[in-house]
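Justification of computing resources. Each target in the renewal requires a structure prediction run like the one illustrated here; the chain below, 68 residues long, is used simply to show the kind of job we budget for.
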Amino acid sequence: MAISARNCVKGKVKNIKKGQVMAEVTVELSPNVEIVSVVTENSINKLGIEVGKDINVVIKATSVLLDA
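Resulting structure tokens:
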């Protein structure tokens, strides 16, 4: 599949916290470096996302806010 996003990283699913409709997926990119994504339960099932699975993280955002 070809995509236009340039910010793609590989990681491993570390945790999945399921809600009624949405799920919070924590992906470990490297030791002590994690990113969290919120996706639908349907997407979890369609993509076969499970703890321990290698996964690609695609970041496509119009803005990223930082506060120090």
